[in-house]
Every structure is written in C-alpha cells, then in structure tokens.
Structures
1.
Amino acid sequence: MITEKRLEEALKYLADTDEEHAKLTAGVDYLKDLAKALKGKFIINCEDEKSVAMKEHAWYASQQYQDHINEKKDVIEKATILDNKRSKENLVIDVWRTLEASRRKAVI
C-alpha cells in the first residue's frame, strides 16, 4: 500500500527536480548542435587532408570528437537516470490514485 507520506515524497521529488530535468534535457540538445559546430570548425581548419570526405573522417578519428562523445554520453546518462526516477515517482502517484479510487468505491 502506498501511504500519503510516500505520495508526498513523490510529489516533492518531482517538484524539486523540475529545473534539473529541464537543464539536462536542454544540455542533450545543446550537445547535439555543438557537435555540428565543432565538426564544421574542424573541417574548415583541417589542412592535413584535401577532400571534405577525408576531413570528415579525420574529424571522427580526432581526440576532440572522442572527448565530445564522452561528454555527450555523460549528460545523456544523467538525463536518463533522472527521467527514470521521475517516471518511477509518477508511477507511485498513479498507483496511489488507483488505490484511492478503489477505496472510495469500497473495493479495497
């Protein structure tokens, strides 16, 4: 049975993590856009290769790209963990609603 105290904890968690959730979600989108900008700068500044295709391959092999995807992985991981925790708290609220509705109908 889900107590009212547990319900309050779920609601508080959701309220307390709204801003963090928004920042992480925005961070994921930002990193996707940043990848394009970094790639463009790398290709423009790459003098080792002649063709654009070879410059693009050099970008994907570069340490700068590896660092970027590692940063992206970390942000996505944090965002996913937070999403999962928020989903769990929403589930607690939904189950509490169902139990309360059943209790009012005297089913439980």
2.
Amino acid sequence: QASAEVSLVLREDHLSPAKRVHGGVISALFDVACGAAVFATMEPTDFCSTVDLKVNYFRPLDLGDEVVAKTEVVFRGKKLCTVRGLLYRADQPDPVGMCTATFNVVSLKK
C-alpha cells in the first residue's frame, strides 16, 4: 500500500495573529504528504492534482512543535486516487489532526 510521511518544525512565520499555528499551514502539509503517497502509485509520465482536501483539526499546535503527517492511499482507480492521513506531534502517540484527500491522476502514456 502506497504511503508517505512528511514532517515539519513549526516556525514563527507559521503562526496566526493569535500566535497559534495557522490552519492553512497544516492543510498545505497534508496536501504535500497526500500527494507524496499518490506519487508512489504513479508512472514517470503521470501527473496529479488535488481535487478535494478535507482537514479536521483536533488540537492546537504551537511554535516549535515538530509534526508528522502520515498518509496512505485507500483507493487508486484509473483517474482518481483517495488518501487518508493523520497528523501527530512527533513525540506523542495521539493524532492532532486528520485528513482525506482525492487527487486526479493523468497519464501522458499512450
């Protein structure tokens, strides 16, 4: 099963005006991690784009936290690929967020 792990140490420029990590940073991290899992299913001539990304935020994150997004492909069709993922603080076992994503996969192979 295709999967990926992507980590990020949260910096000051990831913070919102409320001094919490902005949700868009986590959404972008999930998008990258889900895309990496999709890449593992693709041929060299394929490319993909995000069709849908849903994120649930369970816990707030703080400056300096290291987070790890762990994603896995749950469905791979001819054109669509669906991925799910969980986000963890690197030093904790319980997830702080989750996502589901769907990607459109296009093959340039004839």
3.
Amino acid sequence: MLFRSNVVSVDPATGAVRFRFPFGSRGPTVNAANPLVLGDHLFVSASYGVGAKWAKIATNGATTEWESDQVMSSQYTTCVQHGGYLYGIDGRQDVGVARLRCIDPRSGKVLWTREGFGTGSLIRADGKLLIMKTDGSLVLAEPSPQEFRPLETVKLFDTTVQALPALANGRFFARDTNTLKCVWVGAGPT
C-alpha cells in the first residue's frame, strides 16, 4: 500500500506489517500512481519532487536499488509494464507539459521520451498501449523500448478527460465531465 510518506507491505492473512519504507513527502503532494510489483521488485512513482523508487522486496524487508526524480515523476498515472519495460507519463498536468516515457526499471535508465505528449492514462491490452490523453485523444501505440511507435490517434472528446478509462471485452470506456463513451478497440463486437 502507498501512503503519503511510506510504502507498506501487509500480510493479507493476518494484517501484520511485513515491511515499510519511506516514499513521498509532507506538504501538498499526491501519491496517486499504484505501486507495481515486478517479480521480486517494487516500483513506485510520484510527482511533486518525489520521483521514483525501485526496490528489491522480500517477506520481511525491501532494499532500494535506485531512486530518482529524473527517471519517472508521475503525478497520477500508473505506469504499465510490457516486456520488462515501463511506459508512463512523466511530469505534471498543472506545471509545464508532461511527456510520455519508456524506462528500464532494472537500471533506472530513461530509454526514450516523447516531449510535449501531455498527461493521460495508459492501459496495456493485446500487446498494445491504449493511452487516453486528458486533451480527449485516444492513442493506440506499439510498446517498444527503442522508440515511441504510435499506430492510430482518434479524438474522442473536445473537453478535458481526467477520469480513468476502462477496457472490457474489446470495449473501451472513457468519460469527460458530461459524457460516457464506449468504443470498440478489439477485433469487433461479439
């Protein structure tokens, strides 16, 4: 679990704390991106000067292998994993322009950055990335650690989209403040 200033692992059977390590900061910050467990490692990211942390986890502890505010600083979007790499939005919606980024969590290296991409939410499905941008655009992309590979972009809304999208049986659900839309993104309706 991710709290304002700590990551805490709890035994689901007993509720006992397995381990805790510092992450986050006091003040007007948000830890909104979900922690990601990748094998025996944990990745967490937040904006507001917090950055990202990659830790090796065990039942009774966690050891930080790297941490940096220059690799991934996600305001609210949870990164998605594909092929051992993480894809996510680095930066804040309210300060400057955020960017789409691919990182290697094992090394803490940024592999590529798409500057000026803006903020949004990512879903991985059928080996592709669906990115619902806050500007109302839906981007379909091929995940690649070498470069950004967009396949298609369609404008779904002319207003700001901040709600998290959902995907179920080839149906992509997204909403702005007034309208919920459902579009087919799979092979076709069944």
4.
Amino acid sequence: MTWDIDPAVATAQLQATIALADTGPGTARIRLYTNAWPGAGDPGQPAQAEIVLGKPCASVSGGVLSFNLAAEPGGLVMTAGIPRWARWVSASGARIADGTVTDDAHGGDFRISGGSTPPGEDRPMLLAGSLAVLTGSSLS
C-alpha cells in the first residue's frame, strides 16, 4: 500500500507551502531558464524571464494549489530562446520547487504563452523583449 493522505492534510500542506513562499520582503516569482535542469542547486545561468506573483502567491481550492499573478501581465523576456524549466522562488528568493515548462497544448508543470512553438517542440520560442505569461499550473 502507498500513502493515502487525507484531503485536509494535503490542503494544510499546500497552505503551508504558500505561507513559506510568501515569507520575505518581496513577492514570490517564477523564473524561466533555457538550459537543461541542473538540479536543485544553482540554476547555472541568469533567468530568461521572471514572472511576478501576487501576495498571496497562490490559493488552494479543492485540494489544488493555483498561482496568483501580480498585476503585470507577464514577465519580460531578457534573452531569446526556448525555456526548458522553471523555478518557483519565495519572496525572500529561496527555492520552493522546480518544474518543466511547456506551451498550453502540452502538460508541463508550468504552461506559458508569449511565443510560437517550433515544429517538434512542446515549448514556445520566446523572443527578447516579449512577455512570458503563465497560463496554467497547479500543484496537488
């Protein structure tokens, strides 16, 4: 048998994650990266774009965490390329979680728009100066 966590426990865990992510002087953010995921440590390069979250950075409904975006429509893309992964960082800049990035048509952990997806890819090509917009993501 595998663990079977009560929905109330799962909701409490997600709410605690939101509280941790909102701790700090700024706001939580989602940072996009074009390199291969290097693991939980140093991202290995500057972020391609940074999407600012609101405060609170997320909400929980029906046992699912969904991100709350700040007033900005998206994050300014600093360098052209295809984002491969993203890091959710807290308001203090600490790593919360990493996940895959895809366009809306695919099932990545972070789904974004703001560019066109090249043939054979499941991630959009983002151009410098454009906006990367988080269009879907949830954690349960």
